[in-house]
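User: Please predict the structure of the protein below. I'd like the answer in structure-token form so I can feed it into my own downstream comparison script.

Assistant: Understood. Taking the following sequence of 458 residues as input:
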Amino acid sequence: MTETVLLGNGTVLTGAITDAPYHPVVVAGGAVVWQGDRIVEVGLEGELRKEFPDARYLDARGGIVLPGFINLHHHFYSYLARGLDPAVETNNFTEVLDRLWWRLDRALDAESTRISAELTLADCVRAGCTTVFDHHASPNAIAGSLDTIAHAVEAQGLSAVLCYEVTDRNGHAGALAGIEENLRFIEQHSSDPRIRGMLGLHASFTLSDETLAVVAQRRPTDAGCHIHVAEDPVDVHTSVAQFGVAPVERLRAHGLLDSRCLLAHCIHLEREDYEAIAEHGCTVVHNPESNANNGVGCLDVLDVAERGCVVGLGTDGMSSSIPRSLRSAFLSHRHLRSDPSSGFTVIPDLLSNNARVARRFFDEPELGELTAGAPADIAVLDVAPPTTLDADNAFAHMVYGMSEFPVRHTVARGRVLLQDFEHRAIDPGKLAGRGRDLTPELWNRFHALSWGTSFLGR
């Protein structure tokens, strides 16, 4: 018989998603009950304990109970770069790519890909993130790389949408191998309840017309594209110089813009680009911490949303904490606008938009909500509201309080993965030890690699 679990002694924010601005239902003294991987009921704890007297009890210890967080853009493969010295100057975005990330991804093998994924997923669990979209690259270990990551996702109990980064910077044969890896994985996981695939593309300026034509021809109609767009002006300038057209127009001309298209960054675009994105129902994924780290600028979320674009939120490998990324989006928006009163009209909707997008890929109409019938994906933040918490001020509590506190419990599809701050499925200390054992060899391979790769691998 399926066990019934009641999570109580907390304040529940249901995350109810409507067409109105972020306005969650708040249940003080609330509880969530689930059986198997589905939520059965949400309500007042006193009433639910009477209704389910035999349920196993999980204590939120006064914390805030929310839907598990969803991350629309991550890079698991970057985890073992922590502390890595590229031993060469990286003074602009193209040098950061060419001298750091494009050397690291070429140094990856199957084992370092696996450890990177396992460590990142452990951080996702610790951060209350239960659904994550990853964008992978390992040009010297392409075949089977998505399977390696999927096995790590399955072992840790999370849900993920995975893709391999197609690019011509390592030659056209490598681009074609990346396409094959994506297509194989998409078909293999087309009906998997927790793991799905989509087509990954690096950025327009490293993709030839030949490669985009193959992607357009072979892409299944329901498989979206996950691509970097205008993270830095180099993407726009090089695309125009090489192909005579800017990135969004290139994607539109190849028929790759649709409601399952995730466009990461989108900072340096023109008005007509945002209008085309909105017209085709694509999602712009904001990555504020990464953008600040790379010094590439800041997306004007309010302006982009006012042009009709759906804007979601990612971390781009900087961390696995969506609350922290949300706080960064809020603060960077105020800095960009030089307005300490702004940020409450669009930024709150980033979490809801993430849920709306994830639902399209998992065929889960209530993913991202705490409601009967929804997947039992739950995060408990270890902070008791010090002032009144209601639907009108929930976002202020999030950015000024909740985002700074640790996650006590993480539940993914009904499975308790983190309980009282401790992992239940894995030993993060052992994982970190394996990472330390692996990095000397990985870093040696990295330092043996040259840089100065041309954008098209020619």
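That's the full token string. The mean pLDDT is 95.
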